[in-house]
Design goal:
The chain has helices at 7-35, 53-66, 80-88, 129-136, and strands spanning 42-46, 71-75, 96-97. The protein is mainly alpha-helical.
């Protein structure tokens, strides 16, 4: 007995499988066209004040993304609060922005997504011991998350 399929069985297998293969390829092409998985060729990045760190980071990102064929338009702003407002406003034209961690409430901004954290920013907090005793009923402030009663 031959280990190859007879010609009639081969034709039957091809005629049976061909519509499914064509349908699968057609659906993949349609999904590619509808979903458009390629990154945009141009994005607008809200940075910060012109001489600030966020502006410098924006210039570095623009240079790196240019190597991959993505043109980055930098938009100087007054900082994280304005950047967040621009991200929330679809008509602003801003696609990406630098925002300090904790500046947005996750529940309020469901359509916004963080791509990551770049670095930790220190928070300097000065207070008087007598004020901590009076307000917190303890001599020392040991955390920032306070429950106000």
């Amino acid at each position: 007995m031959s280990q190859f399929l007879p010609l009639t069985q081969l034709r039957y297998a091809i005629s049976t499988a061909a519509p499914f293969v064509l349908l699968a390829v057609g659906l993949l092409v349609l999904a590619y066209l509808v979903l458009d998985p390629t990154p945009p060729a141009r994005v607008t990045l809200a940075t910060g004040v012109p001489q600030g760190a966020y502006s410098e980071f924006g210039q570095r990102y623009a240079q790196r993304l240019k190597r991959h064929g993505i043109q980055v338009e930098l938009r100087n702003t007054q900082g994280a609060a304005e950047n967040l407002a621009l991200l929330r406003d679809p008509s602003s034209g801003v696609d990406l922005a630098f925002v300090q961690g904790g500046a947005a409430e996750p529940a309020a901004d469901e359509h916004l997504m963080s791509l990551g954290s770049m670095f930790h920013e220190p928070v300097w907090l000065f207070y008087r011991t007598d004020s901590a005793r009076r307000l917190l009923k303890q001599p020392r402030l040991d955390r920032l998350a306070l429950s106000v009663r």
